[in-house]
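Lab notebook, bench 4. The sequencing result for the construct came back, and we need a structural model before the next group meeting so we can plan mutations. Quick request posted to the team channel:

Model the 3D structure of this chain.
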Amino acid sequence: MIRFFIKFLLLLIAVILIAFVRHFYLPACHISQYPTYEDWDNGIVNHILPSANHNEFLIKVSFDRSLEYAPTLLISDSIIVKGRSSEPSKRYWSFHASELNPDTKYDVHLVDDEGSGLADAWPLATYPHPDSAVSKVTILAYTCAGGVEDKVLGREIFIKTAFRQQLLSRGLSFDPDIVIANGDHIYWDRKSLDNTFTKRLVKLRLDNIYGHLDLDEPMTSKTNLESFRNIADAQIAELYGCLLRSKPVYFLTDDHDLLENDEAREDLVTFPPQGYMLDGAISTQSMYYPEFLSDRNRPPALTGQGGSYNRSYGTIRYGTLLEGLLYDAKRYSTLTNTSAVMIARDAESWIADRTVANDTKHLLHIPSSPIAWTAGKWSEWYSDVLQEDGSIAIEPKKKYLWQEGWWMQHQRLLGYMKQSERVPVVLQGDLHNLSYALIEESGEIAFGDDPVHVVGTGPLGSGAFGFPSAFRGTGAVIPESMKIRKLLDQTEKNGFSIIEVTTDKIDISMYAWRPEDGVEVIADLQPLFQHTIQTNNRSTNK
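Done. Here's the predicted structure in token form:
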């Protein structure tokens, strides 16, 4: 009996080892799957992500093969824009059109060097002129769309790409004028996946399928570039395909877009970003999604500027109705104690100027690092940290290497919002939840009858193990240093928000879903939460 048990045990161990080796060590192949379209032929185009302002287009396109000659973008057959290759394989191209007419819908067509179409034409419109009166604009907003759908140890960290595409399609059914994707478009952390057994398995599995990344080599080296294309195609190009070809997009970068999680411990500090992190973020943006186009009120030499575009700080300007300020709070963070910042100093000055300018009816703040909530992570505005008992608090455990200057900058940002004559509204992501909160007090700042509205727009890609309550044991909470009124407590579901902006109000609708709800409900998904901000009720008591 004992001998039989030993043989059975050895056989079981052998089966487990074989399964482990097959899953994590033997070469695997990722099979690309791009969306399909009714009544529109994408030809040899894999993905299209455009952006716009009142007189420019910037469009990122990838093809299913290398192109020997530069493709051309024809805009209503009268404007010709030659493509610029974004990397050596000549599969990824960028098209920048300027001197367009405001508030104009154009037919856009990709053709090869002989004039043959590479895909069907599609419509794309410029925005109204910054000084023109506009009565309405609709925004689709979400966060954390990245991640591959592969399971590790039976755990689904990200939902299936097909589910994300169906959620996107439901969002697009509201015919938004603008799409905002706030951070974490790609998950391929390098050093921060080395501190636990489970994380090492995740890294091993990803590298097995998509390829290894040599951090001592430039991203553009032959081996690294192939691996990078594999992982980014799977998370960005295959997710979006050409679904958003007619919708100007704003992709704001966060920590994972820099190829790391924001972590600080004795053996690893991931920010400020190192060379391979910056190289990865720049490469992703250059190849897949648009940088931020110019704006007359954003300094041309602002930190993050590269040529005609800015990689980190952007503007949405929709006539005199709306201005949106997009700002990366990771890439230029510093570790200098009370003078530390998350947002570059000159960018903070730009944010301050635009917040109090009051030359549009509404203003949206769109930061990559959340305001009014904490997950106890390192690179946050707040000193609250995950305690030994599973709670998130300031004491007794202190947050390692947290910088007081981050909180000080946070307070300055809220101070600018308090000075504005417009209702302060923040659209944010990162925390893998949908939420709605009103900031009534922050430290010594009290907002009285004019609280700051903070909208957690909803995560598109998080799987069951991708939500904080699963992998950290607790969801997001309110920081101890703030007084917040929760209209919608943090809700860990996949979803998105629709923001409809009109002259005297902002209507916000949040849509939530989990795979257990059933795929069939997505097409007619109804709001989890709705709220209207009456912007004419702004108090004059500052």
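The mean pLDDT is 92.
Will bring this to the meeting.
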